[in-house]
Amino acid sequence: MADSPDQTANMAGPQSSKDADAITSTSTETPSATDPKAALAARMARFKALQSQKESGRRQTEAELRADEDRPQRLAQLSKLQAANEKASYKLLKADDPDFERKRNWDYTVEESASWDKRQAKKARNRDNVAFADFRGEANKVYKRQVKQMGEKDLEEYAREKGERLQRQVRMGLLQLVEENGEVFTVDAQGRVNTPAEELYGHDHKPSKEAVDKLVDDLEKGERARLKARAARGIKDDDSGDVTYINEKNKQFNEKLNRFYNRYTTEIRESFERGTAI
């Protein structure tokens, strides 16, 4: 018995719908999976986006670097403006009130006033002591400056080494341990308190790496200061020949002698040099 057309259509309906869906899904697939031009365009768009991101990152990094480089200059300008503002305010207040200085001093105690006067006197002495007087005074100034530049760590290390040295000298009998009023201290033969006795410098002493580096930095700093001072005076180091002078004045004097007597002493110097060479 033959099926009716309606039954045939109903039986073939699900299969036909599946085929239609497959065709539709195939036709609606992204062109990038099948079209090379579309895939290339998508890759180019992604590449341009990465390039734009890289360029924006580079510009941001350059802006941050410029800001870091300009920061010290901006801080210096800001500090200068603040100092100028404070100075102008002080002048205005002083001009408005003749007793401004006397009234301002009312806020300070006697101890603070004495400490201020002491600091001002010390600054005045330092200003007067800037010029070169003698080598002992220069060495004393360098010593005081280096002591002032010592950090807390250096002071602690100095106190520790001094304590160990005092204990060692007490055990050796160089110092006497004394206890008085609950305090313990050492006394040497001259009656000095908590002062290590003089000892010969031992060959076993080995400074730390930090101490050696600090010494090298101090020497290099002094050499840079010396060269800077010479450059400020218009003096250049003469590395062209033998050094026959002890200072700049002696060098000028030797040059003057050479101008007048060099033609007479050239033969004598050459004879000495030949004799030394032989």
UniProtKB/TrEMBL annotation:
**GO biological process: what's one of them?**
mRNA splicing, via spliceosome
Q: Does the keyword Repressor apply?
A: no
Chaperone found in the keyword field: no
Signal peptide start-end = none
What does the entry list under GO cellular component?
A: catalytic step 2 spliceosome; post-mRNA release spliceosomal complex; Prp19 complex
- Entries under InterPro entries matching the protein: mRNA_splic_SYF2 (IPR013260)
Where in the cell does this protein reside? Nucleus
> According to the UniProt entry, which residue ranges have a biased composition of type Polar residues?
1-33
Q: Where is the composition biased (Low complexity)?
A: 37-50
Database matches in Pfam families:
SYF2
User: Which residue stretches belong to region Disordered?
Assistant: 1-74
Q: Which controlled-vocabulary keywords does the entry list? A: mRNA processing, mRNA splicing, Nucleus, Spliceosome
Stretches with biased composition (Basic and acidic residues) = 55-73
Per the similarity annotation, which family is this? Belongs to the SYF2 family.
User: What quaternary arrangement does the UniProt entry report?
Assistant: May be part of a spliceosome complex.
PANTHER family to which the protein is assigned, alphabetical? GCIP-INTERACTING PROTEIN P29, PRE-MRNA-SPLICING FACTOR SYF2
Q: What does this protein do?
A: Involved in pre-mRNA splicing.
Protein name per Swiss-Prot or TrEMBL: Pre-mRNA-splicing factor SYF2
The organism is: Pseudopithomyces chartarum
